[in-house]
Design brief:
Order of helices and strands: HHHEHEEEEEEEEHEEE
Number of helices: 5
Largest sheet: 7 strands, mixed
Distance between the termini: 16 Å
CATH architecture: 3-Layer(aba) Sandwich
Structural class: alpha/beta
Strand order of the largest sheet: 6-3-2-1-7-10-12
Radius of gyration: 15 Å
Strand content: 25-35%
CATH class: Alpha Beta
Length: 170
């Protein structure tokens, strides 16, 4: 996590742009009608370019919405104007714009993480939100967009840890 914090804003933006461009060129993106991403924190891959592409191509974009301890659901983001700063300084959908999407309807989930391994293992931030949520997105491809230094040989995983199907790095 420390290495993510040391990236300059220019380097973070360059790598984010490269990753989004590569993801937008995939068949997974083209075929997906409902995409779940996350509202990026400052140190994460910046996903506004992906949000804009979803809006432009009239795909349904969702982001996580915390509903309880370790529990989240997917809430639709109709446009940038529907977002506001929420808890922990992370963007969320304004109450008047909230429309929830059933997890089984989601085609693709962009999954955040601190580190990923070559077998699709993922180390999250410790809250277990994605480990609990991902088993419910039964029809979705799970994609990680990560800085190259986040990809490691292996991670100490437990049986409940959810894996990703594809890792794109820059």
């Amino acid at each position: 996590m420390l290495k993510r914090a040391t990236l300059s804003p220019d380097e973070r933006n360059r790598k984010s742009h490269e990753l989004i461009k590569n993801f937008l060129a995939t068949e997974i993106f083209r075929a997906s009608k409902i995409i779940m991403a996350y509202a990026s924190t400052l140190e994460e891959i910046q996903l506004d370019e992906l949000f804009a592409a979803c809006f432009a191509e009239e795909k349904i974009l969702t982001i996580p919405f915390i509903v309880g301890k370790g529990e989240m659901c997917a809430v639709q983001v109709p446009n940038f104007d529907a977002l506001e700063i929420g808890a922990f300084n992370i963007r969320t959908v304004k109450p008047a714009s909230r429309k929830f999407i059933a997890p089984e309807k989601i085609d693709c989930v962009i999954v955040p993480g601190v580190a990923f391994d070559k077998s699709g293992g993922r180390l999250g931030l410790g809250g277990g939100f994605y480990d609990r949520f991902l088993p419910h997105v039964v029809n979705a491809k799970k994609i990680a967009l990560a800085y190259d230094f986040q990809l490691v040989e292996s991670l100490p995983l437990e049986s409940h840890d959810a894996k990703v199907d594809l890792i794109l790095t820059a």
